[in-house]
Amino acid sequence: LVNKTFYHFTNDDKLWRAALLRQLAIPERYHIWHTGLRRLLPLDHPMEDDACLLEEVRKYLGEYITHKDIYKKVVTRHLKFEAPMFLMPCSVTIGEMYGLHLFEPRYRLMIRELMDACEDPRAARNGELIRPGRTEDGVLQPPLLIHFCLPQHLRAGAMACLVQVVWCRTYEQETADVQLMPIAWVRLDSVWCRRDQGDLFYAKAMRI
């Protein structure tokens, strides 16, 4: 009886809606959850009032989707995520753009795959507007990478910076100049390496 009662609670959509609204109501969590919900809408979707954001998401995705499904998408695709890593100690500040020239084979591969996932890869890699693509389950996916910039050991639990590629121009042999915007600090959950691709590192991480 107790198990059935808890099962009923965990599938009560009114409670999941309340949980989403509670996350949006917490000042320290608002930006993360607001951005995560926006990624479920089209890039140019008009929004007049943040108060109706959750209703707009449900309207766009269809009435068949539950608030539990929405909560799960934000957690698994936005709060927690997987991304390639760029390794170089330096100082970065959230909201302050900086540029890099990518020439190592592993980073040429990284930028090529990030641009290929955009809505228009040709435009994205040639200095034009970068329009994010979408994941298989419909979540807007900007070209993101993790910059491991702090002087610490690369391991689970370490801190790093999540950055978005906002401009890219590739040249012969696929070297590239990029402009990057730091958008969040993250904590690494796990790290692994593609040895067959010049030691390109990847990480699962969580926004903090």
Summarize the structure in words.
- This protein has 7 helices and 8 strands.
- It is an alpha+beta fold.
- It is globular, with a radius of gyration of 19 Å.
Cα distance spanning the termini: 38 Å
- Report the sheet-strand fraction: 25-35%
Rg from C-alpha positions?
A: 19 Å
* Order of H and E elements: HHHHHEEHHEEEEEE
Structural class: alpha+beta
Show unreliable segments. Answer: none
Integer average pLDDT: 91
Shape, per Cα inertia axes: globular
- The percent range for helix content is 25-40%
Q: Give a short account of the largest sheet.
A: 5 strands, mixed, barrel
How many extended strands?
Answer: 8
Oligomer: single chain
Put simply, the count of helices is 7
Arrangement of strands in the largest sheet: 1-5-6-7-8
